[in-house]
Request: fold
Amino acid sequence: MQNLPLHKKIILFDGICNLCDSSVQFVIKKDKKDIFRFVALQSDLGKEICQYIGVDSDKMDSIILYNPGVAYYYKSSAIIGIANALGGIYSLFSIAKIIPEKIRNILYDYIAKNRYKWYGKKESCMIPTPELKSKFL
Reply:
């Protein structure tokens, strides 16, 4: 896939989900090493990346962590990967790897299924402020 920053990890997220938006804002605030870039799953680029890595974007209710040219992770594995990349105290979250992925994803899927009911959703994807625009692809 061309035109993606090769030295950045890309987080694909549900752009209309309030929980996802809050999570993105949290990662941006904690991303002191400027590791991440963000793409809404609903955007043309989000759909293009999903197609490229073989994930059906219409059926995707998950966060995806994509490391261009290396690998991608989704659901609980993406969250663990993001926490590890943030480092510091967040890397302790990797202890969750002792729980089998299938079991971790049952919890993830439960939250994903109820995220709109619990946290609400927006009518459209957020528009980043000028200061944050460089973080979004």
About this structure: Residues 9-135 form one domain.
